[in-house]
Amino acid sequence: MTTPDSDDILTTAAAWVAQGEQVAIATVTETWGSSPRPAGSQLAVTKSGRMAGSVSGGCIEGAVAEIAMKTIENGIPQLMDFGITDERAWEVGLACGGKLKVFVEKLS
Amino acid sequence: MTPETLKALTEARAAKRPIVVATKLPSGEQLLLPDPTAPADLAAAATKALERDESGTQIIGNETWFLHAYNPPLRLIIVGAVHIAQALVPMAAHLGLAVVVVDPRRSFATEERFPNVTVSSEWPDDAMDELKPDVRTAVVTLTHDPKLDDPALDRALKSPAFYIGALGSRRTHARRVARLKELGHTDEVIARIKGPVGLDLGAITAPEIAVSILAEFVAARRNGALAPKQPEKQAA
């Protein structure tokens, strides 16, 4: 059966690259407490605004997408912290009280 | 990720080879494992990540590495190209499983009933010998016919398959247990079979039964805590 793994964001992202899209991929690298998605969860974002996958239950995807846009522009990978000890996390509302690190890189 | 890394990763996954993307944090320097030229401690950590099927960040030496484990999809071998299998196949594919349907009865295992699925028309014991269930394989028998179910279960019990389920009522299952004992399997080994297969959801329709089977499969895969099945309840 060739149906794609519903959690296989990398395949989707690679297909976007092949279509000529500029793509960044964000990966959860570490979690603490009640973070909703495990390490390895991914979110792919294109410059044109397409999105696939998730790195949280929807709490921080907007912020991660913004960072991804910068990484697409300048090619510089980013390691981001989100969590209750982080001012920014309150802003973007990680309501679960968990903490996580997200690595954002350009797929080229 | 460089185009070379993405290409090599995509190829490995298409060939169903287990592979780890190791990313040094925060610089983003990457390498793919296994690789004979990689440092021994990094290689060992990658092997462990694949075995545990778990990605995560680790301090190796004095460096921080994120190890992303990509295992090939889990396999589900379904014996019996029956109505419930027709419901089970698309749901299993949605969970990311590689599905194989085994049924030597050609009127059941048709392309029309099972489009885009690998179908084997071998006898279940031959098919199982070919498919070689491993620790990342689940086996579910659905035929209700001992001639077909028993040889598949016999082979499944001799394999390290992580989930084995057999459709059929408690009474059917008791008779099945007796037959498998005659084939030389011990009670302890036979207890690996989930019979009747699936969580006790009160499922009636084929899609509902498929949900109960896949729910039990997920619990087995994730070591989910489940209340024991109610032995006194009358089974369908």
Number of strand segments of chain B:
10
- Tell me the β content of chain A: 25-35%
Number of domains of chain A: 1
**Percent helix among the residues of chain B?**
25-40%
Count of discrete alpha- or pi-helical segments spanning 4 or more residues of chain B: 8
Distance between the termini of chain B: 53 Å
Biggest sheet of chain B, open or closed, and with what strands and sense? Answer: 6 strands, parallel
Description:
The complex is a heterodimer of chains A (108) and B (236). Helix content of chain A is 28%, strand content 30%. With 108 residues, chain A is an alpha+beta fold. Chain A has one domain. In chain A, strands 3-2-1-5-4 form a five-stranded antiparallel beta sheet, with helices on both faces. In chain A, a hairpin with a 4-residue loop joins strand 2 (42-46) and strand 3. With 236 residues, chain B is of the alpha/beta class. Chain B folds into two domains: 3-70, no CATH class; 75-222, NAD(P)-binding Rossmann-like Domain (Rossmann fold), CATH 3.40.50. Chain B contains eight helices and ten strands. Chain B has helices at 3-14, 40-52, 83-94, 124-131, 146-157, 170-182, 187-190, 206-222; strands at 19-25, 30-33, 56-60, 63-70, 75-79, 98-102, 118-120, 137-141, 163-166, 193-194. Chain B has a six-stranded parallel beta sheet with strand order 7-6-5-8-9-10, sandwiched between helices. In chain B, helix 5 links the parallel strand 8 and strand 9. The model of chain B has no long low-confidence stretch (mean pLDDT 93). The chains are: A alpha+beta (108), B alpha/beta (236). Chain A binds chain B through residues 1-8, 10-11, 14, 17, 25, 27, 29-30, 38-40, 77-79, 101, 103, 105-108, and chain B through 1-3, 6, 9-10, 13, 23, 25-28, 54-57, 66, 68-70, 73, 89-90, 93-96, 98-99, 116-118.
